[in-house]
Every structure is written in C-alpha cells, then in structure tokens.
Write a structure and sequence with these properties.
Oligomer: single chain
CATH architecture: Sandwich
CATH class: Mainly Beta
Order of helices and strands: EEEEEEEEEE
Helix content: under 10%
Shape: globular
Largest sheet: 6 strands, antiparallel
C-alpha cells in the first residue's frame, strides 16, 4: 500500500517547461503500466510545448482554470471536467489561457 498526501508532496517542474510545476502521486515503475499520475499547476500564460510520446498514452483531466490543448493541430478548450486521452504519436500542447492557475491531473499509461 502507498498513501500520497498531496499537500506534503514536493513540487517539481514538468519536463517541457520548468515554470509549470507538478506533484507526482505515482511514479514510473511503482505500478506496472503506469508512467506517472500527477497534478500539474500551470501559471497564467504558461505552455507545455507541443510534443509526442511513442510509447505511452496520457489522460488529462482539467480540475480548475481554463486553457487550450492543441492536439494534432486541433484546439480543444480546457475547463473543469474536460477529460482528454492522447494516444501515442499524437502531438499535444497545453496552454493556460486564463487569468487564474490551470490545474490538470495527468495519467501516463505505457502502450503495450
């Protein structure tokens, strides 16, 4: 069993922009098939630049704030309750377009 207490977890930068911080609740290797389960905090105006993953899916659940996910050239509005699954090789970018912090839960799943 592992219990993570969000308020006690350290913040660390995401790999695509060190101004965007995350708290990792599950790390790669802790659960088979999961690369990470984290909560990312995007300050206003910050972007996790467009990128792909060849070997994983990512599920994004918007918890708070507003923004845009650009997915394969399509712009998808982000608001609380929006959940987007990104498949391997899909180009994706997340930007906080609002005046408040954008908070997104991210689950990475290894492709079989």
């Amino acid at each position: 069993m592992k219990i993570s207490i969000l308020k006690k977890l350290p913040e660390e930068p995401i790999s695509h922009n060190n101004h965007i911080l995350k708290k990792v609740m599950v790390r790669n290797g802790e659960i088979p098939g999961i690369t990470q389960f984290s909560k990312a905090y995007f300050p206003p105006g910050q972007t996790a630049e467009g990128h792909t993953h060849k070997d994983m899916y990512e599920v994004f659940l918007t918890e708070k704030g507003s923004g845009i996910m650009e997915l394969n050239g399509n712009k998808i509005p982000l608001e609380p309750g929006i959940c987007i699954t990104v498949e391997p090789y899909e180009v994706h970018e997340v930007t906080n377009t609002g005046k408040d912090e954008l908070i997104v839960l991210i689950l990475g799943i290894i492709k079989d």
